[in-house]
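Protein 1 of 2
SEQ + STRUCT:
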Amino acid sequence: MRENASRARRILHAEFGGEPNFMTPTTLGTGLLSDNIAWEISSGSGVFGKTIYGVTVVTEGGRTSRDFKMSDCFDSHKAASQYIKGLREEVKYD
C-alpha cells in the first residue's frame, strides 16, 4: 500500500513539480487507480471562502498528463472520497 502511495506521489510530482493547486493546496491523500493512473484529493477555500475538495487524476504514459475528464471538485470530503471509490470501480484496480 505504501508503494502505491509513493508511486502515486511520483506520478503527481512529475506532472506538477511539487507545486500545490492554488484553489486546493492542502493534500489529503494520494493513490493509484491503475499502475499508471494516480489520484490526489486536496482541500482549500473556494471563490466564496467555503471549503472545497478537489480530485486530480494524472495519467503516466511515457510522459504525464492531467486527466481533466476524470478530475473534479466537491463540496465535501465524503463526496470526493466516494467519487474516487467510483473511479476505482470504473478502472477496476485494487
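Protein 2 of 2
SEQ + STRUCT:
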Amino acid sequence: MAGVKESVEALEAARVIIVLVKKVLADGKLTTGDIGVIFDVVRSMNTLNAGIQGVDQVVAELKDLSAEEAEIVIAKAMEIVALFNVSKA
C-alpha cells in the first residue's frame, strides 16, 4: 500500500485553484476588483506547493489503493465535484 498522501494533496491543490478561479469569475468578468484573489493565492501557497511537489507519485498511489484509501480519494474528489453543482432556481 502506497498511501494516498500525495493524491489527496494534489486534489486539495486542484480544489483551491478552482475556488480561486470561481471567485475571480463570479461576476463574469476579470477586473481590478479581483486583485484580492492574489492575497488568497499567497495564503494558499503551502497547499498549492504540497500538491505540486508529490504529483509524480499520484499514479503509483492510485494503482495500489485499498478500499479505505479509495474512499478517502473519492471523498476528496467529491469536494471538487461539489464546487460545480449549481442549484436550479
